[in-house]
Amino acid sequence: MSLASALDFLVACRDRPAMLARYDQRNLAQLLFHAKNDGFQFSREDLAEVAGRIEANVILVKDADGFSGSSRLWPRMWGLRHLDYLIRHGVLRHTDDELRALIASGGDAS
User: Fold this and answer.
1) 3-state secondary structure 1-70
2) Where do the domains of the chain lie?
């Protein structure tokens, strides 16, 4: 599978609100199934890895917080579905180059 494809999926959701709305209503198994039908090739592990790298970069670099329960990112997810939260508070806080660097470097976009 592919971290790059998982990132491409998240960027497509960012860029296409109708796609985000369609996928945001799905559970993980449905999301993976339909994403594959839409041409994306990633596993749940790939998606979790990309999401983790994005969240870690927001906490450690963008917000300059410690990686703990008191990080400012965590309360932002309250009341949101996970995909919506990840796009709004993770993907949108990065440029395309920063997102690609997170995947290429193994998690460090600095």
Assistant:
1) CCHHHHHHHHHHHHHCHHHHHHHHCCCHHHHHHHHHHCCCCCCHHHHHHHHHHHHHHHHHHHCCCCCCCC
2) 3-104
